[in-house]
Amino acid sequence: MNYGELPETDDDEFDGLTNRVSLKDTNNENRIFLVWHVHDSEMGKSVQEHLESTRYGFKCFNQDDLFHADPDLSLAECVVQGVRNSAKTIFIISSMMLTDLWAACELEVLPELNFKGFKSDFMLLIVQEVELPFIFTDVFSLNASTVGWWNKLINWLTPTDSVHILSTDTNRNSPGLAGVNPALQSGHLLLSYRSRCGCCGREQIESELPEELMAHGLQIPNDEYAKAISNLMQSFKARCHLCCFSAPAAAVFFTSFFVLCLTIIPFVEVQLFVSSAPANTGLEYIHGCLIWLTSLSFYLVVSYLSRRRMNRLMAAELSSINSIFVRHNVLIGMEDLSIADCNKYYVSFLFTILRAFI
Fold first, then answer.
1. Which CATH number belongs to the domain containing residue 100 in this structure?
2. 3-class DSSP state for residue 260?
3. What single DSSP character describes residue 189?
4. pLDDT over 90 for what percent of the chain?
5. Helix (H) or strand (E) holding 90
6. Cβ burial, residue 85 (10 Å; 0-12/13-18/19+)
7. Greatest CA separation found in the chain?
8. In sequence order, what DSSP letters do the residues of 269-338 get, joined into one string?
9. 7: which DSSP letter?
10. In total, how many domains does the chain have?
11. Where are the transmembrane segments (predicted)?
């Protein structure tokens, strides 16, 4: 890959080991977590070594450091721990990074990024031109092939108006909570809806801001709320249609196909492939059952993969919504009851005092 040039560092000035972060250190100040694919390890290690030099003095670590410290951790757990225990996170982006590493840990990492201040404490260092996922649309990024990217990286790591997750007392006195019910505690359930998908019944969640939320003094723009709820319901309806329409249709089809496999297929097999006088041997029925089981297995695999994909998309949509709502001290949680109760679900609104001031 054609990376941009890193600044030259004298050997006597280069003392990265003295700045190597201790994984047991609980102080997150100046800790930089770098994530890269093994294919981009040369670039990642070079960036880390320069940041750890005495010229810059950052404390850095990466997912490999966490894995070597605890080999029982999975890749996703390493990335989540790194994001949780760092002040800033840098993802080195390439096609291999997105298709392999990010795809493996996306669902586990997104909630952590939302609480950390997604747009402020997270950046993309692009080493290969790729199409970024939608969740990264507004995230700060640098192209390593452009001139001056290193200075921009250092400026991003040392801003004058850094974003911090404020404590309870500080946040209570913040302008963003003016007028909010002082009795509210973090995790308080503000509102809960029980609804069902559009094909089974009428939607109960309206796009207008509920009076129950306004009664607590929370200021959520109507347009943001309407857009968030609309997107969430669309994601859920797409998943419901898979159950409400495809499952009954598949039941009718495979019932009919089973009858076909035990009648028409054995008859055709006997007439075409038995050279002597046609007679039933029993094997033709076994062949018919095998054809039916093969087609049913194929349908179940496709259905499972489709449902899994829709669940991932809905979880990503929920994370994207919470990255916006957390600025208004609200988090949305969704509990799917489709298996137990015909595609019904709970949507809960929770109050949070963890707020990133952007």
1. 3.40.50.10140
2. helix
3. E
4. 1
5. strand 88-93
6. middle
7. 95
8. HHHHH--SS----SHHHHHHHHHHHHHHHHHHHHHHHHHHHHHHHHHHHHHHHHHHHGGGTEEEEEEE-H
9. P
10. 2
11. 242-265, 285-305
Element (H, E) at 355: none
pLDDT at 157: 82
Three-point CA angle 214, 317, 346, nearest 5°: 55
Query: What are the tens digits of pLDDT across the range 196-227?
Result: 555 554 455 666 777 777 777 777 788 888 88
* In-domain check, residue 3: no
Tens digit of each residue's pLDDT (9 = 90 or more) over 116-156:
455 567 888 998 888 887 777 778 888 888 888 888 888 88
* C-alpha span between 80 and 60 (Å, rounded): 16
Q: Which two tokens stand for residue 355?
A: 């707020």
Rounded Cα distance, 136 and 91, in Å: 11
Helices (H), the chain: 41-52, 63-69, 75-84, 95-96, 103-116, 149-157, 168-172, 211-214, 222-241, 247-273, 283-325, 338-341
Q: Which residue(s) pair with 189 in the sheet? A: 350
Q: Which of 133, 157, 181 is the last residue of a domain?
A: 157
Q: What is the pLDDT of residue 197?
A: 54
**What integer is the mean pLDDT of 81-85?**
81
Q: Which residue has the higher pLDDT, 231 or 256?
A: 256
pLDDT tens column, 271-327: 666 555 555 566 777 778 888 888 888 888 888 887 777 777 777 777 777 777 877
Determine the structural domain holding residue 334 and report its residue range.
Answer: 189-351
